[in-house]
Amino acid sequence: MTSAFDLLWIAFIFLFDVRVMGFDILPDVVGYLLIVIGLKRLASLNGHLATAANLAPVVALVSLADFYQPPATGASMFALRGTTFQTPVESALTITGILLVGLNLFLVYHIVTGIVEVAKKKKEKDLVEAATPLWGEYKALHIMIMIMLPIVALFPAAGWLAPMVQLAAGIIVYFSMIGFLRDAQWTLFGPKANTSDQK
Questions:
Q1: Of the candidate ranges 15-29, 127-141, 155-169, the one whose mean pLDDT is the lowest
Q2: Alpha helices, DSSP H only, in 14-63?
């Protein structure tokens, strides 16, 4: 049976923003649904993981709006382009995108902090120390994305910058997060962290 932590780290693969003809071929909503399932098994461990478990379905719902972004007219099928404020639909997508990044940040904060609390109880100092720089990088890059999205939306000629930065952020921090979650599973619970009854 797939463990709770396996579901969490696999979920981050789907949070990479890879688009073809405007469609996200790794839909965020799939990743967030995996997080929902994984966190349901871990929610009883502490308040932070419980908060994350309650928030995850909301983030999954909001992420549906990010599945498709209108591609630029005449652009190739693999062209990278951010949303703009040129039409009501694109304006709504831009605002939703900013909201989604903020919700993601809040969700991941509670996941990481919840894991850190478990690690402290089990006196796993290395895992606690690994979480600090990881969260710092994750937070900084996602705040940068939140600031950048409305800027590039106002200047469509620079619209390609948003997906490029999102992809770069994903490569930098999502792979690190995947490694952290896999280490957390092994360190805290062994290879089979399946349910929330592991204390």
A1: 155-169
A2: 28-42, 47-63
Domain count, the chain: 1
Closest to 112 measured CA to CA, from 34, 193, 165, 46: 46
Judge whether 157 lies within some domain. Answer: yes
| Residue 87 CB burial class (10 angstroms; 0-12, 13-18, ≥19) | exposed
pTM summary value = 0.87
Range of the domain at 23: 4-68+82-189
CA angle 184, 58, 183 (to 5 degrees): 5
Q: Is residue 197 part of a domain?
A: no
Q: What is the pLDDT of residues 158-192, one digit of tens each?
A: 666 767 777 777 788 999 999 999 999 999 987 65
Helix (H, G, I), strand (E, B) or coil at 64: helix
Average pLDDT over residues 33-62: 97
Residues with Cβ < 8 Å from 163, sequence gap 6 or more? 17, 19, 80, 81, 82
Asked whether residue 125 is domain-assigned, the answer is: yes
Please state, in angstroms and rounded to a whole number, the distance separating the CA atoms of residues 132 and 155. 35
pLDDT of residue 156: 72
C-alpha to C-alpha distances, 50 to 5, 32, 61, nearest whole angstrom: 15, 15, 18
Quickly list H helices, the chain.
Answer: 4-13, 28-42, 47-63, 88-121, 125-154, 161-169, 175-184
